[in-house]
Amino acid sequence: MVDLLRLGSQWLEQIRTAHCSSPVEYRRPPEFWTVNATFGKTCFEVADESGLTIHAQVWDFLILADALPGMEPEPGDVIAANGRKYEVMNLGGEGCWRWSDPYRQTSRIHTKEIGADT
Length: 118
What we know:
This protein is mainly β.
């Protein structure tokens, strides 16, 4: 029997990548790759040592898992997009990335903006 949910998810990921993404440069020196990514954000709360809750957000990049050649994102990698640089970073206990869909087609990579791409 055909798995219609899987087929639908694959179709949606293809459409998102084709029509809702931009080329970015994924850098892990000395190498780099040009891939298509969709911009996103993740909002989270962190309690500091005095018990105050801090609301924050990080920039996310949704990238097809097979776009990066046999590797997982690591903290310290850099994504260059629209003249800005974003450093891959751990997000609390989640790590620096997670799957964006149940079929493990797309990585949601957490980053922080670190300045202009000069």
